[in-house]
Amino acid sequence: MTNRSFEIVDVTLRDGSHSMRHAFTKEQVRETARGLDKAGVNYFEVSHGDGLGGSSMQYGLSKVNELELIETAAAECGQAKVSVLLIPGIGTKYDLNDAVKAGAKMVRIATHVTEADVAKQHITLARELGLKTIGFLMMAHMASIEKLVEQAKLFESYGAEVVYVTDSAGALLPHEVTERITALKNELSIEIGFHGHNNLSMAMANTLAAVQAGATYIDGSLRALGAGSGNTQTEVMVAVLEKMEYNTGVDLYKILDVANDVVAKYMPRPQEVTGSSLMMGYSGVYSSFLLHTEKAAKRFNIDERDILVELGKMKAVGGQEDLIYEVAANITKKKFAVAPKP
Ligand SMILES: C[C@H](O)CC(=O)C(=O)O
Ligand SMILES: [Mn+2]
What we know:
There is one protein chain. It is built from 14 helices and 8 strands. By secondary structure, the protein is α/β, with parallel strands linked by helices. It has 2 domains: about 5-265, Aldolase class I (TIM Barrel, Alpha-Beta Barrel), CATH 3.20.20; about 275-335, Orthogonal Bundle (Helicase, Ruva Protein, domain 3), CATH 1.10.8.60. Helix 5 (about 120-130) links the parallel strand 4 (about 105-110) and strand 5 (about 130-140). Helix 11 (about 275-285) packs parallel to helix 13 (about 305-315). It starts with 6 loop residues before the first strand and ends in a 6-residue tail after the last helix. It binds ligand LCEJXURD and manganese (II) ion. Manganese (II) ion (MN) binds near residues 195 and 226. The site of the ligand C[C@H](O)CC(=O)C(=O)O has 13 residues, from loops. Keywords: Aromatic hydrocarbons catabolism, Lyase, Manganese, Metal-binding.
């Protein structure tokens, strides 16, 4: 469909991998990909939750090799294109080459919001491979607007065609999204995207703020399946934005069908704002830490919220999953420490 107001990029099969504990099966991917393609979504992402090469003890082992999942999804695509996520240092150039062989047509190179400089060679390779190439600045709440603009400009200078404001912690409020997208629109020539998490129940409001400020790539996931409280819900986004007379290019009934008849059936639990996921938004913690924190809290028999507040204070970033256990161990030590005798 032409004349879309923006592109909706569905991340169910990548961000949703966190909630699925990276256990997507081929059948689940096949059915979801088929539904997204039929509904008219142009781009959807398939990878381990932490991107290509993420399957590991640190981030969680994939049940099925992601290349097989990419291949399975690509085989279902009539008009849609499969995207992959790559975090330099977790994924490598070899992983990207393999993903292209498996059928990927777009890549989002993701870095912490202050570290765009590590992405240069990956962006260059992605362009050489003929991929639609996007820069993805994670934990966007952690940088000033000036810093964000500086880093986005680096992505632009390396050859990214779109740059994203990624609210990995679901910590941004609508006026902060407006300020960020507006600044990028004013300072860059490439398109701007927004990726939200619903930890403070702001994902839809933030997405609207982004679109109204000029974002032309917006992310969502079916039934909100994603890290933390999940993402902006794709099917809700389609309904709301169509009601506002934007042209999403997505068929509402068909996107509802894949959300409810396919994804809802395999979700391990509904995506809700729980005490812990709310604390992630409130304290600014990376959403994909949620299930790791749950596990650590159980093991040490402590309150997960205490771990999350501490991680927020430490300004922990993606890739520092090992800190979760360290923080939990320290909280336990303090809890059981015997006060020194006076
Ligand atoms: C690896 C992260 O899950 C990427 C992402 O979706 C985010 O930062 O948010
Ligand atoms: Mn995310």
